[in-house]
Write a structure and sequence with these properties.
- The protein is mainly alpha-helical and 252 residues long.
- It has one domain (46-251).
- Helices cover 58% and strands 7% of the residues.
- It has helices at residues 28-42, 46-63, 72-84, 117-122, 125-140, 143-163, 174-185, 191-207, 213-223, 236-251, and strands spanning 87-88, 91-92, 94-98, 105-107, 112-116.
- It has a three-stranded mixed sheet with strand order 3-5-4, sandwiched between helices. Strands 1-2 form a two-stranded antiparallel ribbon.
- Strand 4 (105-107) and strand 5 (112-116) form a beta hairpin.
- Helix 5 (125-140) packs across helix 8 (191-207) and helix 9 packs antiparallel against helix 10 (236-251).
- The longest helix is centred in the middle third of the chain and has 21 residues, at 143-163.
- The chain is globular, with a radius of gyration of 19 Å.
- Residues 79-245 form the Peptidase M48 domain.
- GO terms for molecular function: metal ion binding; metalloendopeptidase activity.
- Its cofactor is Zn(2+).
- Belongs to the peptidase M48 family.
Length: 252
């Protein structure tokens, strides 16, 4: 699989261990403050997660080239969005295309859905519908919320390292928001989460009267055989096989 395909569906690992580097130089007040912030990261409310996701997505938009409304990419995505719908369990969904040769697509807990033109160039509309159904599955099933919580905790761990040098814990600057966005986009979902999102996409497409076969052929294009990026994840061919099994059962 090409390097630029690595962040799609089977995502890169996110190092999220909380480590108070050099904490022996920190005062009790510093440790208490960081401890409370760590607790807050683990207990972020849905609204907190959506607010952080909104800001992180906005920062990604600011750093990216967005397809103009009149472009062929935007018009094509609007057609796909109309079929998928613009609301997910009460969360408004916002779709945009990033102009880049990278092959990727992702969604955040606030309903921010972004598709890269490189992915659109290699896939049919039906395949994109399958991929985006998968990404919406991560949102609907709470995986994206957890990814933001872990990413936020990771940023706090970095602040802890800075605080060990008597630096104040930094607020979320644009660079921090960009780091949060990158961490969420590249977050590692478990094998079960990936399969659950696959199955969600299948059921969601069926509910929307969209042919779910595109999800299987999307995996065919992304997988290139039985190789998996991470051993803890199912291979693309296995995931395609799972969808085709469900297709066969649907026709019975």
């Amino acid at each position: 699989m090409k390097k630029h395909q690595k962040t799609l569906l089977v995502a890169l690992p996110l190092v999220a261990a909380m480590s108070l580097v050099g904490c022996k130089n920190m005062g009790v007040d510093d440790l208490t403050s960081l401890g409370m912030k760590g607790l807050k990261a683990a207990t972020l409310s849905d609204n907190d997660v959506k607010a952080l996701s909104q800001k992180s997505c906005a920062e990604m938009d600011a750093q990216s080239k967005i397809a103009p409304a009149k472009s062929a990419y935007a018009k094509r995505l609007n057609k796909i969005a109309k079929a998928l719908g613009n609301n997910l369990d009460g969360t408004p969904i916002n779709y945009k295309v990033y102009i880049t040769k990278d092959v990727n697509a992702w969604a955040m807990a606030n309903g921010c859905v972004r598709v890269y033109s490189g992915l659109m160039d290699m896939m049919t509309d039906n395949e994109i519908e399958g991929v985006l159904g998968h990404e919406l599955g991560h949102v609907a099933l709470g995986h994206s919320k957890k990814a933001m919580q872990v990413a936020y905790a990771t940023e706090i761990a970095r602040d802890a390292a800075a605080a060990s040098g008597n630096a104040a814990v930094a607020s979320l600057s644009k660079s921090k928001l960009g780091a949060l966005a990158s961490a969420v986009i590249n977050s590692q979902f478990s094998q079960k989460q990936e399969q659950d999102a696959d199955n969600y996409s299948f059921d969601y497409l069926v509910k929307k009267k969209i042919n779910p076969a595109g999800l299987a052929t999307a995996f065919d294009k992304l997988g290139g055989g039985d190789a998996s990026i991470l051993s803890s994840h199912p291979s693309s061919s296995d995931r395609a096989k799972n969808i085709r099994k469900k297709l066969a059962e649907l026709k019975k």
